[in-house]
Amino acid sequence: MDINATLLGQSIAMAVFVWFTLKFVWPPINAAIEERQKKIADGLAATDRAEKDLHLAQDKAKEYLREAKEQASAIIEQARKRESKMIDEAVAKANAEREQILEQARAEVEADRSRLREELRKQVASLAVAGAERILQREIDDAAHSDILEKLVQEL
Amino acid sequence: MADSNISVQGYINHHLSDLTIGEGFWAVNVGSLGWSIILGTIFIISFAWVGRRATAGVPGKFQCFVEMIVEFVGKNVKETFHVKDKLIAPIALTIFMWIFLMNLMKLVPVDWFPVVAGFFGVMFYTPGLPEYAADYSFLEQIMAHKWSYMKIAPTTDVNITLGLALGVFILILGYSIYYKGLGGFAKELSFTPFNHWSLIPFNLVLELVTLLAKPISLGLRLFGNLYAGEVIFLLIALVGLAQLPLHFVWAVFHILVIVLQAFIFMMLTIVYLSMAAEKH
């Protein structure tokens, strides 16, 4: 195997191939690779951003939830207060009414009693008068006394 | 394919020679040169095809494969070659892929192609048959036909590897002159390693030897590795049936060698060109 013109032919072929690669092979492939790298980098950045946004949204949601809970408990608290207030008011009102009714009843009873006492006093007085009358009559006339006594018995 | 009529020496010679046209220096090894151009064309056309329809979106499988190679080469160039230059990466890619494909042809069993080429030669091109082979048997005629000498693994031809090295040498000169200027390049050759006017001749001899040693070592390293591997393949092919496991083992080993040698050639080219481009 001798050194011959193949060597030169190979060198020329190499020059042609290198030129072709420089012109038509390397630039488009490299451009595609670089573009994809950029796309991937952008995508990763977007993912990071989305994750951050998600965290923010979650925090915000938590905040809202907390606020809502606070408001709900405040409302419940208020309702409870109002309820107890209403009950208190009702109780107070009922008590007052009861007092009033009792007072009235007591007054009525007192009135009845004083009326009865008055009546009783009147009757006792008339009885005493009647008894005195009869005692007086017997001393005067037995016969007359007896029918008075009978009258009294009948009257009693 | 150790035919009883062909001696071992003849068999090996048959495989190590090439189909040649012309005489003396101006002869051309049609096999090596033709196959190297075919393989280089396969490389640029397939890669250019990918480049034409390259998409930055989801790539196809072949595009992925091509991009892997391109990125691999680009990474090595970026790590080694620090000057901004848009020619260096295509050079490295071309050298790597082309040498890889040329080396790859070695994995084709050594007798397949000669037999096929010789068969077509005997069938369709009778002038290619030597006169002494006229009364040979058909099989012997096949192996005697000129076409059966065609070599398909170009890197086992020293002309091919030195041709590549010559290309790299011209590039080294070009880069040196482009980046340092003719004067700067001459100054570097004259005043290193000893920076004194009286030692200029000594420096020149030393630097010129260094300069020439680069392409020669580059070409001979590739040739030596691949040629030695080819000879082993031929010897294995001579041992009869035992060649099957042996060939398998050697071929598997060569999968490593062919990639490695292509890589070494590419890396050294990048290193030499970066040395040529950087100012000291």
What does this protein look like?
The complex is a heterodimer of chains A (156) and B (280). Chain A is mainly alpha-helical and 156 residues long. Chain A has a domain of 107 residues. Helices cover 96% and strands 0% of the residues of chain A. Chain A has 2 helices and no strands. In chain A, α1 packs antiparallel against α2. Chain A is rod-shaped. In chain A, 11% of the residues are buried. Chain B is mainly α and 280 residues long. Chain B has one domain. Chain B has 9 helices and 2 strands; from the N terminus they run αββαααααααα. In chain B, a hairpin with a 6-residue loop joins β1 and β2. The N terminus of chain B is likely disordered. Chains A and B meet through α1 of A and β2, α2, α3, α4 and α7 of B. Chain A: Belongs to the ATPase B chain family. Chain A: This is ATP synthase subunit b. Chain A: One of its GO terms (cellular component) is plasma membrane. Chain A: It is a single-pass membrane protein. Chain A: Its main location: membrane.
Record the strand order, biggest sheet of chain B: 1-2
Low-confidence stretches of chain B: 1-5
Q: Based on Cα principal axes, name the global outline of chain B.
A: globular
Structural class of chain B: mainly alpha
- Greatest interface: A-B, 32 and 53 residues
Count of DSSP H/I helices of chain A: 2
Radius of gyration of chain B: 23 Å
Termini separation of chain A (Å)? Answer: 176 Å
Q: What would the average pLDDT of chain A be, to the nearest integer?
A: 90
Listing every helix as H and every strand as E from the N terminus to the C terminus, the arrangement of chain B reads HEEHHHHHHHH
H-E order of chain A: HH
Low-confidence stretches of chain A: none
The tally of beta strands of chain B, per DSSP, is 2
Share of helix among residues of chain B? over 70%
Pfam family, one (chain A): ATP-synt_B
Transmembrane segments (chain A): 6-26
Protein name (chain A): ATP synthase subunit b
GO molecular function (chain A): proton-transporting ATP synthase activity, rotational mechanism; proton-transporting ATPase activity, rotational mechanism
